[in-house]
Amino acid sequence: MNDITDVATKFPTRKRKDNRYYVIEFTFDELKKLQVTERFNPTTSKQVYKKRFQKGKGNFRLHSFTQEIERIHGLNKSTGKDIDIYREIKKAYISS
C-alpha cells in the first residue's frame, strides 16, 4: 500500500510501528478513497516501472468484485466477446 497509494497523505496516523500501512486495517470505504498509482519507491518517490503511467497521471480506484463482474459483462455485451475472470483466493496473513 505504501508504494502504490496516497495512504500516507490521507491516513497519516494509521501506520504501524514499522512505518507501513496494511490493507487489513482499513475498511473497504476507506480503501476506495485512496488514489492508486503505478508502483513507486516510497523513499525516493521515483517510479518503479518507467514505461507505464507517470506517477499521479493515472486515475485508478479500488472497486468491488461485483463491479468488476458488471464491467466485464458490459464489455462482453458491447463487444460481442466472451471474456471471463480468473479468480485467485489468497490466504490473509495478519501481523502486528
Strand content: under 5%
Level of helix content? 25-40%
> What is the CA-atom radius of gyration, in angstroms?
16 Å
Question: What structural class do the secondary elements suggest?
Answer: mainly alpha
How far do the termini sit from each other? 16 Å
What is the overall number of helices?
3
DSSP strand tally: 0
- Per the principal axes of the C-alpha atoms, what is the gross shape? globular
Report the average pLDDT across residues: 84
* Low confidence ranges: none
Order of helices and strands: HHH
Largest sheet: none
SSE topology:
Layout: H1 7-10, H2 28-32, H3 65-79
Task: Offer a few descriptive terms.
mainly alpha, globular, about 100 residues, 3 helices
Short overview:
The chain is mostly helical and 96 residues long. The chain has a domain at 7-62.
Any overview of this molecule?
This protein has helices at residues 7-10, 28-32, 65-79. The chain has a domain at 7-62. The chain has 96 residues and is mainly α. Helix content is 25%, strand content 0%. 4% of the residues are buried. The two termini are 16 Å apart. The protein contains three helices and no strands. The mean pLDDT is 84.
